[in-house]
Amino acid sequence: MAQAKTFVIGDIQGCFGGLTALLDEVGFDARRDTLCAVGDLVARGEDSLATVELLMSLGDRFHAVLGNHDLHLLAVTQGIRKVKASDKLENLLNSPRLPDIIEWLRQFPLAKRIDPQHTMVHAGLYPAWSTDTLLALSDEISNKLLGPDWVSVLQNMYGDSPRLWKSSLSGDARARFIINACTRMRFLNEDNALEFTAKGSPLDAPANLHPWFTPPNPQLADNERVLFGHWAALNGRTQHPQFIGLDTGYVWGQSMTAYEVNSQQLISVPAR
């Protein structure tokens, strides 16, 4: 009998064709294998509804963390933000299953430990945090998103400040920093404050900015790996063996990538 495998997939973004092609390529068997996703399940691709329905059908064989597009979808469903044409979410928003999809998305955390060696998060690990700290802060947001006042989390998450982490942060400011670090972070400035103006390749960034994964993080054990998405301009390249970028820009015409946890192998399929 074949050994069960765990695959972690990069940003799907509603690209149903890419998702099914990649699952075929890796030989995913829903009776045995587990699929994880680093967030941004929806938006911009050709069929977010079919993508979500497929992932929902996997039941407890599927795990994900929330990305910025997933949170934005939740905000749209609650009338907090308007949908953009480029989101291509019309069929999902008009689906009779939308209430079930909302409840399904709300269950996912901002970060999840897959095994003692692998932790996934959409944008990355803020360099002042250990993975234990990341998971504890993720739990703070999950408890709010699963609570009766969950819509207020979405209402207050928009904005770029505070940019610098302090453990003394509280209330909306604390929640906003956690969500921004987990779902929007790419660059930091010299003080390791979040910087959102630059979104491209590190090679093209202003001299005062650096990627979140370049400062030393002594709290990260040598055998730990952080799996993340969000930053298509990296095309998966971090130059650091502990930080595995999985957003390889399928929705932009590049490829969709999965990481098999046991073999630590990367598998990709090109965009159609």
TrEMBL record:
InterPro entries: ApaH, Calcineurin-like_PHP, Metallo-depent_PP-like, Ser/Thr-sp_prot-phosphatase. Residues 5-138 form the Calcineurin-like phosphoesterase domain. It is an enzyme of class 3 (hydrolase). Pfam families: Metallophos. It catalyses: P(1),P(4)-bis(5'-adenosyl) tetraphosphate + H2O = 2 ADP + 2 H(+). The lineage of its organism: Bacteria, Pseudomonadati, Pseudomonadota, Gammaproteobacteria, Alteromonadales. This is bis(5'-nucleosyl)-tetraphosphatase (symmetrical). Keywords: Hydrolase. The keyword Hydrolase applies. The keyword Ribosomal protein does not apply. Its EC number is 3.6.1.41. Belongs to the Ap4A hydrolase family. SUPFAM superfamilies: Metallo-dependent phosphatases. Hydrolyzes diadenosine 5',5'''-P1,P4-tetraphosphate to yield ADP. GO terms for molecular function: bis(5'-nucleosyl)-tetraphosphatase (symmetrical) activity.
